[in-house]
Amino acid sequence: MVKRFVMLAGVSLALAACQDQQQSASSTRHLSPIPPATMALMSAKGVSKSDPILVRAYKKESEMEVWKRGADGQYALLKTYPICRWSGQLGPKAKEGDRQAPEGFYTVTPAQMNPNSAYYLSFDTGYPNAYDRAHGGTGSHLMVHGTCSSRGCFAMTDEAIAEIYAIAREAFAGGQRGFQFQSYPFRMTAENLAKHRADPHMPFWRNLKEGSDHFEALKEEPKVAVCAKRYVFGGADVAQGNCSPRLDPAVAQKREEDEKQIAALVAKGAPAVRVVYDDGGQHQAFRETMVAAGGDAGGNFSLFASQPQPRRTLGDVSRPEALAQGPREILMDEPAAKPGKQKPSTALALAAVDKAVPPSKSAAAKTAKPSGSAVATRLSEPEKPAPVVAASAADDSPSLSQKIAGLFGGARPAPKEAAQAQAAEPAAPPPSPAAAPVPPRRKGPAASQAKPQPASVRAVTVVPKPDAVPTMPERRAEASGGLIQGAPPVVPAATGFARAN
Q1: Are strands 154-155 and 113-114 parallel, antiparallel or unpaired?
Q2: b/e for 153-168, b at 16 or more Cβ within 10 A?
Q3: 153 catalytic, yes or no?
Q4: Could you give the maximum distance between any two Cα atoms of the chain, in Å?
Q5: pLDDT value at residue 401
Q6: 36, 129, 358, 501: which has the fewest C-beta neighbours closer than 10 Å?
Q7: Residue 145 annotated to the active site
Q8: What value, to the nearest 5°, has the Cα angle with vertex 111 and ends 109 and 117?
Q9: Predicted TM-score of the model (pTM)
Q10: Which one is predicted more confidently, 109 or 436?
Q11: How far apart (Å, rounded) are the C-alpha atoms in residues 312 and 302?
């Protein structure tokens, strides 16, 4: 009975995280002023605290930007904040419980600000929006909040959310009714788009880039609509419901230049990769903090030196073991797999690779070795002649007559190699009627080498999944605590900082 009670309590705690329960209304932390250094930065950029804001988040870089609109109507970058923790993988949130932080364009209103958050302070991103609902997206309470614990949220630390919250509060006080929150998998550069071109989420990311291009080229907040299950970006015509808005010449020029850069990078041989995580990531500054001074978690680190008494802890850090190895890159063949096949964890993503291409025992098989924090896995090589493969003595060896026939009709691959090639490649066209018949196979000494395969059969080089990549079972609770100044690093028991978002 006691065991059952503990299990039920654990489930209830797991469902309570990121739901952002209300704390005592007597707290005044939501009234904290904007730090003097940030106020001075506003003055230097010609903006005031009451001017409208816009926020942009990037998962891969683990950064969040706050922009301010000036008197000329254009936005200027005010400050970039490191993200302490985000969870899941690169890609949009699809359903409740997938641990995905959202990607897309959202609007944050005063009603979405939570001054009594269980995570110090927070605001709701607004997921699911019209695009998410059109694609069947489910989930709620996807927040930007304090501490360093995430199950589908952007955790910024208490110091960072206090400053962002104060900036947003003053913008609302100045008359802004809602600020735009743009969330991306990575910065929409030509390098990133070329690198991730074979990822199954690329069509969605290119759609997001249309909105990013509008903002980058004009420094104006794009108006957003959803038409035929796609984002549509533009100016006043989009705001009036036009699903085929006029493309601004500056935006068109930026898009054209980016496409030329992408094509040039691909032509130079830039590899196509897919990045997978055990469970999200964090900015390098926090990684350094967690291992500094022999494990002192933040004792010698202050993100905001302008504050007289900065906090000396990151707070609750969710799943620190998932951050240990960092992201891995898998080299991919083109064209990419169909969208919607992404696995939620590194282990499942690599398992899918293993199922798609069985391990080869040929001499051409190569094993990828870990290098730093990244492990590269090549699914197959570009189109090229087949390598010379040594036949095993245990195989059925070709007879002398078969070898002679191979000189005229092309060598026939060994049974095992043929089976692997047939599984990995489309079926080759039937042989020409004029081809010489092949005599029956008979036993004989093992051939030292097989002849090169015909051009219609492409060799596939397979790399087994590295042993260093761990599995990532889905956890029902967050690991937290143990990150207090002067205390040794520990991974404590689950405390309930979890929710199936």
Answers
A1: unpaired
A2: bbbbbbbbbbbbbbbb
A3: yes
A4: 92
A5: 42
A6: 36
A7: yes
A8: 115
A9: 0.65
A10: 109
A11: 7
